[in-house]
Design brief:
CATH class of the largest domain: Alpha Beta
Strand order of the largest sheet: 14-15-16-13-12-17-18
Number of helices: 10
Distance between the termini: 33 Å
Shape: elongated
CATH architecture of the largest domain: 4-Layer Sandwich
Number of domains: 2
Radius of gyration: 24 Å
Structural class: alpha+beta
Largest sheet: 7 strands, mixed
CATH topology of the largest domain: Phosphatase 2c, domain 1
Low-confidence stretches: 364-368
Helix content: 25-40%
Length: 395
């Protein structure tokens, strides 16, 4: 890529009213060795379990075949030939949008029957040259796909959605008798970006889904999904936990914290005491308990958050493991760390390697694993599930 930027990917969804399972499925995958990110949104016919199965099959195949650099026609043919036939409608049907951002800076988009992507360059609409691909295989002859390729720039955004967004309000909203429509959606997105030039992918996608829900009088008439890819400067976060193996490394430890340009979190009383002493900064304790399982947070000038160590990190790991778009984060220490992690792109984890005798006590619960194991699990989740850049160093 000509300029370095972070690729933020986020999806927000709302189920068809009364359904527990979403019929739209979103899958994203980071291929580190090729410096590629692939994101797919699929909308299965109908809603509920059947739609989810169709969409899951479609999205999974689309990601796998795209990763293998298969031809667009081949991808579409295989997907459409593989989908099971609906027992009621006697057809198989699932839409898809595939976004493939590769290492040399090209973005490739392939769409089948989803609303056409909206691409923003800053606050203005970017209109790449779209190509219509006609399938000519026996089973899928005449079906059309749209494809485009363009070179991305910093502050570009790609917004793609299911028709639950563009058709919201249809029949039940006097303002949008024929649905919200792509043009109105585009105007709304532009207005949001003009109001907040650096609005995150998560916040933009959330506002779009919420507005579609308002159009439907808060009773979604279809599965509603909006995904956003935002290319921007990376947001950096540092987590330090555990004391250095050698006490003479305390000065170096504190320097890493002082010189870091980004959000700073200290996990562990001993860690906080070392940084406080070396930087001559006072720790102020809080007595507000927002999580009955964990001690309250503390505060220090220049540090964004101070928490207890291993118990808090173990809970962070568990929240990340079970996290979904329906997860509601509270105000507890682990929740606050998760919020900061999800809002960051480059995450630097510095682990002190001195053994804490308390963590070797055989009377403590088995799940109280040593700090390094928990941090490695957090790093793996951040990389694989949330597509974060993670660096671990030991001191």
């Amino acid at each position: 890529m000509d300029e370095k930027f972070h690729i933020e990917v986020n999806i927000q969804q709302k189920n068809y009213e009364g359904e527990r399972i979403c019929g739209d499925v979103f899958i994203s995958r980071k291929i580190k060795e090729e410096n590629r990110i692939i994101a797919v949104l699929s909308d299965g016919m109908g809603h509920g379990v059947k739609a989810n199965i169709l969409a899951t099959l479609t999205a999974t195949m689309a990601v796998n075949f795209s990763e293998e650099h298969k031809d667009s026609r081949k991808i579409a043919d295989i997907i459409m030939n593989t989908l099971p036939v609906c027992s009621e409608r006697k057809i198989s049907y699932s839409t898809f949008t595939i976004i493939d951002i590769d290492s040399d800076g090209e973005v490739r988009i392939l769409e089948y029957d989803n609303p056409q992507c909206i691409i923003l360059r800053g606050t203005e609409i970017l209109e790449p040259e779209w190509t219509c691909i006609y399938l000519n295989s026996e089973m899928n002859a005449g079906k059309e796909l749209l494809s485009c390729i363009f070179k991305p720039r910093k502050e570009d955004r790609i917004i793609f959605c299911s028709d639950g967004i563009t058709q919201s309000g249809m029949g039940g909203n006097d303002k949008f008798l024929f649905g919200w429509g792509r043009d109105n959606l585009q105007e709304y997105i532009q207005s949001l970006v003009k109001q907040d030039r650096y609005i995150s992918a998560q916040r933009l996608a959330s506002k779009v889904v919420n507005m579609a829900n308002i159009n439907d009088n808060y009773q979604s008439k279809d599965d509603t999904s909006c995904a956003v890819i935002y290319l921007r400067d990376p947001r950096k976060l540092l987590i330090c936990t555990g004391p250095p193996y050698e006490k003479n490394k305390d000065v170096e430890y504190a320097s890493k914290v002082r010189d870091f340009n980004g959000t700073k979190i200290l996990c562990g009383a001993t860690t906080a005491d070392i940084i406080s002493r070396e930087l001559n900064k006072e720790i102020t304790d809080s007595f507000e308990f927002h999580d009955s399982d964990l001690p309250p947070v503390s505060h220090m000038e220049g540090i964004d958050l101070i928490t207890e160590g291993i118990l808090t990190l173990s809970k962070v790991s568990e929240i990340l493991r079970t996290y979904s778009v329906q997860t509601k984060l509270g105000k507890g220490p682990a929740d606050l760390i998760v919020k900061m992690l999800l809002e960051s792109d480059e995450i630097h984890l510095v682990i002190g390697t001195r053994i804490n005798i308390a963590h070797q006590d055989p009377s403590l619960p088995v799940e109280l694993e040593i700090r390094r194991t928990v941090v490695k699990r957090i790093a793996r989740l951040l990389e694989e599930k949330f597509l974060k850049e993670v660096d671990i160093s030991y001191i």
